Amino acid sequence: MFAEGPANTVNYMIAGYTVFFTVMILYLTSLLVRYRNLKQDLDVLQEVEQRDEQ
Amino acid sequence: MEAKSRYLKILDAVTMVLFLISLWMVFFYAPLEKVMGAVQRVFYYHVGTAWVGMLGFAVAMIAGVAYLRTGSRKWDIVGLAAVEISLVFFLIAIIMGSIWARPIWNAWWTWDPRLTTATIVELVYAAYLLLRQGIEDPDRRARFGAVYAILGFVSVPLTFLSIRIFRTIHPVVIGNSDPTATGSFDMSSAMLQTFLFGLFTFSLIFVDLLWHRIRMGKLADKVELLRLKALE
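YS: structure for the whole thing
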């Protein structure tokens, strides 16, 4: 390993960055989905509140 | 619900540009490490994600203190947002570290002091999220969250210092490694620039994500209050 130059560890590098991008994409998607669901909930609850006031 | 502010849109754009530059530096600017080869490039984001993890836990601890002093719900929202983001980044750091370790230590995992304390940190904050879900009263939940975030933070400096005070095979990036550490390397100036630029970029990613998560937290708070009102 030392005499022949750098070890061939490309696959591990690819695996590392695949994990990074996969988890980041999953988290960002979860943020978007949760935000959208909360907005829908808010609309429904505001509608119920207005109906109750009437 | 308030619209996305102009400043947040600018921050999104700047963060994205810096992230792309950082990626370019990692893969094309930083030289190939002479012994470890390509896997050493994992180092830049391994440390960057771990940094965001620790930064977020520190923010959660400060938000906890601020909540206990002021009783303002906004600090609970900040604390929860910081913990959630940090958990995700710390998990990435642990997995990337394990992948880096495989060709260098010849093992995916070892119960080394750094790896053990990092796992404890991840579990401590995962429990924070789980336990919060079990408390229905928002004020009680916020008080519990604040106290837990302050006490839980003890595990963070312990993890940071573990490679400096215990005998370990985990290398120290800045400072002298333990003689038994495996995977140390001398950083060239291009490597150091890539590393520091990555740390700065990850700090900005954290601020950007925190801002987004706080917006979501405010929305969740509003929904919860309306729901409780509807149930009365």
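YS: worth flagging: Chain B has a mean pLDDT of 91.
IM: good catch. Also Residues 6-231 of chain B form one domain.
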